[in-house]
Amino acid sequence: MVVIYSNENNPSALKLIIAHNFVSAKFDLKLVKPNDSSLQEPRHLPYLELHNGQIIFMPNAAICYIFPVPEKYSSQVNELLEWETTILSPTLAYTIGSSVKNETLRSKLQAALEKLNTKLEKNNYLVGESVTSADISVWCDIFPLYKSPELSKEYFSALPNLTKWVLKLESEPQFKNALESFKIVVGQEAYTALLNGARYPPPTVTNEVQIKEKDSPQHQAEAVTSEELLAAEKAWKKDVSQLPQLKKHNKVVLPVAGEKNIFITSALPYVNNVPHLGNIIGCVLSADVFARFSRLCNYNTLFICGTDEYGTATETKALEEGLTCKEICDKYFKIHSEIYKWFNISFDHFGRTSNPEQTEICQDFFLQLNSNGFMFTQSVDQLHCEKCNRYLADRFVEGGCPNIGCSYEDARGDQCDGCGKLVNAIELKNPRCKVCGSTPELKSSTQFFIDLPKLEPLLRHWMKLSETGWSNNAQVIARAWLKEGLKPRCITRDLKWGVPVPLDGFQNKVFYVWFDAPIGYISISKAYTKDHEKWWKPAKDTQVTLYQFMAKDNVPFHSVLFPSMLLGTNRGYTTVSHIMATEYLNYEDGKFSKSRGIGVFGNDAQSTGIPSDVWRFYLLYIRPESQDSSFSWSDLVTKNNSELLNNLGNFINRALMFAKNNFNKTVPNMVPTSEDYTLLALCTREMKAYVTALEKGKLRDGIRHILSISRHGNQYVQVNQPWVLCKGTEDEKTRAGTVIGICCNLACLIATLLHPYMPDTSSSLQKQLNASTVAITPGNVEIVTLLPPGHKLGDPAPLFAKIEPTTAEEMKKRFAGTQEERKNVNGKEKGSGNNVDVKALEEEVAKQADRVRQLKSSAKEKSVWQPEVAILLDLKKKLEVAQKASAVQNNAKPTGIPNNVEVSGTLKSLQDEVTKQGLVVRKLKEGGVEKSLWQPEVDKLLALKKQLAQVSGEPVSNGQKNKKGKK
């Protein structure tokens, strides 16, 4: 039997007991003294002793051992457990359990609890849809705090989501049982026991900078060296005019000798379908972020891409839609172009492989490789349809699956959808032509092969020099190919749609798509500029660095096949230095599939009404860099509301609104202190980490450093409380001006750092700041005064809008199944019709109303049921809007709307205005500013609501309460 060793009253012991309860496992509990010399070193309590005598000292590691984390949530749970170990638990231990009081730690604890409250805003659990190790660990930490009446009043009064969660888990049998078997005294005694048992090192800083009682919580016991502090002060005092200016981006970008020339390509998306979100983040969006960052650094940057248009998949799609191959390519090229434009992909040129330059360069490549002895011919058995008079490509033949145990009769010539295994077309049982249905015959055909074994020594030598700049998965995949030894590869097919083979006797053959497609990078460059060879064959005094972005399935073509072709020509072509390959992005609990139409596609994203910047942010936030990740509608909503709205947007908007209302939209005079320089030093760290991450292509990490800067800023504002300082002495008013001035400058910095990720948001913020993008100097990253005192600001406005939690379920239902299944009889998307939405919302309102009634009747405290009431009100408002929109779509105006009112435009625009103004008012009130400052904004909101009521036919409300306290 396993044994739990713990000192009395230690809340961490509950973690191990609850974990055992969840798996119904037996254990023995031994209570010991923290200083008992017989305990296993290093005597951290509690710890777990296994059957074999092995010791697990870390409680979180022990929980995960007992109660394993579901694989799909492992990264999220591990991130939370690390935060609990390093931040939450020691902060609680020292803030509550120690006799030494420190305001910085108290603020740090409050910030940690607020983070949890925000995380639980839309979810019942910290991760996923049931209890995980993260819930157990965090709950045990804060339960003694919540159960102490005095401490609960101090820390939990404004945290309804966290309160609800604590009570919910307390009622679970596994938690109730643990509390009965291991009694703890709540409040300070529990945290003293935690402190004595865990032996946390006290929060320390270096001797150079000591934390003072009133230091802001963004210090969070983080060590800031004197060197960092002095560097921050020196940078802040620099003259902004001395900074390098952002270079103008030329219409035609060419490499320049002596400069850093960055050449970026994105894997060419295949043109036979609409790109889904996995395609977008895997190649074009990732490449775009890196291209925008490179331009911010004043690197000479070229970014090209285009559609891959030849091959059997195009012929198959043309057959399905009754169009010619050219018509199919034209149709989907336009769709791709429009989607990438909506996603703000900043190509210098977006071309296509069916252009004349492709034929010219592809044929030239072949002839040169053939001349150099790297091609040979060989007879290949293929199925031939006499009726169609052509050899059948794999996708044009169907038949019975040849794999043992599978009886699927509609297997394709390349793969069986019945068993999922690969198929050789000539082995199909009872094969039939997909076009005419007749039985094909087996015939031989002579094809060209590229002799990769001859090129292998050259490739191996090149790869040793190049692969150090590749992502890890690219290195692993390329090495696996070489480990098996390269084999000759067929490069021609008996097709009509493709680049013809330029040799007598082979004119009826075309190059296979894998040989043809990578050459598209060169042909698209040539279509962009006649001087394209300056990038592909640079002069000796000019250095060009090639970055190629793709998903991992494209790695073999870019690491082995295309480099072999370039090396085999012996013409000095630029070869890839950095292969930046992602893993796969999955969709909810399954996988994206372009062929089956499963998932969210580029045009779907446009139809949701969610801004493209939010899509960019979320896809980059979950970018599958080191392992597969999953797109989740509920997570998208959560990240928008927590990270963008409550963190980033809140910091920027409250600073700019304060500047508008208190300093006449002008950056005030600033008199920085060591506290301010400490903030700037911490933000400089984040900025340096941001630059390092992006230079290495770690795009997901980069966005987290931006969010950390705004998080530091929010904590800084919260502790300094400029709305209070403004009412004080002249020195306090000056202090308020310093805080707001520094925050405005951090907002300006964020506007630049956001540009690669969220270009529209960046531009909007720059307009509000009346500022322009500044250049980043990677070798000298520092924070300077971008907006000096006296700088006139623009008009502040919310950057982000809240997405209602119900939206996640609505979208999940709307985009369930395949694209074909989403079509109703009228050809409209399932769920896009308002009748469906209205019905679903009516059910949600009824369900939530029942929940509120039950909570109220159970005599629960107001703090428990009030959040549920807020959810009900939001649902009712959403239902009202949906009902009116439904009436408009059905050519009927909502009741009470005058005939001369144009509903479809006016109603929507007024609703948007009311939402925006409501956000302004809410932020002002939350910011604690005095009534004289927020009342004018409230008046404006009421006026907008009055207009909306007139348009929608609702009774006009003056916003005042009657004698009974009701609206």
UniProtKB/TrEMBL annotation:
Q: Which reaction does it catalyse?
A: tRNA(Met) + L-methionine + ATP = L-methionyl-tRNA(Met) + AMP + diphosphate
Top-level lineage group:
Eukaryota
The protein's predominant localisation is cytoplasm
Where in the cell is the protein located?
Cytoplasm
**Top enzyme class:** ligase
| Domain WHEP-TRS, first and last residues per copy | 837-893, 906-962
Q: Which UniProt keywords are present, listed alphabetically?
A: Aminoacyl-tRNA synthetase, ATP-binding, Coiled coil, Ligase, Nucleotide-binding, Protein biosynthesis, RNA-binding
Pfam families per the UniProt record, alphabetical? Anticodon_3, GST_C, tRNA-synt_1g, WHEP-TRS
| Family annotation (PROSITE patterns) | AA_TRNA_LIGASE_I (PS00178), GST_CTER (PS50405), WHEP_TRS_2 (PS51185)
| Chain ranges of the GST C-terminal domain | 70-194
Which segments does the entry list as coiled coil?
808-858
EC annotation from Swiss-Prot or TrEMBL: 6.1.1.10
> What family, per the record?
Belongs to the class-I aminoacyl-tRNA synthetase family.
The entry's protein name is Methionine--tRNA ligase, cytoplasmic
Per the UniProt record, the source organism is: Molorchus minor
